[in-house]
Amino acid sequence: MKFKDYYEILGVPRTATPDEVKAAYRRLARKYHPDVSKEPNAEARFKELGEAHEVLKDPEKRALYDQMGSQWKSGQDFKPSPGWDAGFEFRGGETGDFDPNDFFEAFFGRRGSGGGSRRPNIHAQGEDHHAKVMIDLEDAFRGAQRSISLRMPSYDAQGRMVSRERTLDINIPKGIRAGQHLRLAGQGGPGVGKGAPGDLYLEVGFNSHPVFRIDDRDIYVDLKLAPWEAALGAKVEAPTPEGPIQLTIPPGSSAGRQMRLKGRGIPGQPPGDLYVVLSIALPPADTDSAREAYQAMARAFRFNPREGKA
């Protein structure tokens, strides 16, 4: 996927006010409108301008775009890092109807911009809000109470982007998985008139872990073995999210073998599994005795790992 610089497309600086963004879009849209333009790429350019304007005119989408786009240049291969959109609060719901092959259209097209005028004597429930929060793997094992900070970008009277921040205390239930939502009743947008406030839905993601990898409710961990442990079998200490355990390595284990520990993944009904992925670490041949040991192995085994392979 290629990164698109929306500011470059509209020809405005990153400090442009909403009025400047609007004026640039109108000027270029007239120039490249397919019904009147003589430019050979008018239709594609017009679509690109509309996409850029759709993002930069909305304070929430623009703030999120600035968050993930500040380090990229137009045309570069782009892949956002996990959790890059965490902490932003959005009005409206998610349509879920987008093309996953086009990140920009997918993400910035899927959230409602909300807003709208209010009339007197009208009562309506407030909009639901959505945000993504990142938690630690350990929180899913034990459950936890955490304070989170959310930002909702908007424009002030001078057209400058400002951020309204708030802090909430949330309960993280034991066994929650990535992609699930926590509902905070009444924490969404305010109601109109006597209408009740909307709800806040928090989509859960996991922070990167230095030891474990997470796949839905299953967990993976790499475990290094000495060559003799893999060949002869051994009892070794292996990490789990709930603490180290003694693991029996079968004789003749090879690198890449996965040992499944049933039910030791993320808790639930049913719980996930923990997969221990074996690898073999070779001791260095950095002393005379170590080199002699390797030479003795070479004489004893006469082993060719490439034999029979093209």
Fraction in helix: 25-40%
Separation of the first and last Cα atoms: 35 Å
What are the segments in which pLDDT stays under 50 over at least 5 consecutive residues?
94-103, 105-119
Helix/sheet category: alpha+beta
Strand order, largest beta sheet: 1-2-6-5
Over all CA atoms, what is the radius of gyration?
A: 28 Å
Describe the structure.
The protein has three domains: 1-57, Helix Hairpins (Orthogonal Bundle); 72-114 and 123-208, Urease metallochaperone UreE, N-terminal domain (HSP40/DNAj peptide-binding domain), CATH 2.60.260; 212-301, Urease metallochaperone UreE, N-terminal domain (HSP40/DNAj peptide-binding domain, Sandwich), CATH 2.60.260. 26% of the residues lie in helices and 25% in strands. The chain has helices spanning 6-10, 18-32, 42-56, 59-69, 103-110, 137-142, 227-232, 288-301, and strands spanning 89-91, 129-135, 144-155, 161-172, 181-184, 200-206, 212-215, 218-225, 234-238, 245-249, 258-261, 274-280. The strands form four sheets. A four-stranded mixed β-sheet has the order 1-2-6-5. A four-stranded mixed β-sheet has the order 7-8-12-11. The chain has a two-stranded antiparallel ribbon with strand order 3-4. The chain is an alpha+beta fold and 310 residues long. Helix 2 runs antiparallel to helix 3 (42-56). The chain is built from eight helices and twelve strands. The longest helix has 15 residues, at 18-32. A hairpin with a 5-residue loop joins strand 3 (144-155) and strand 4 (161-172).
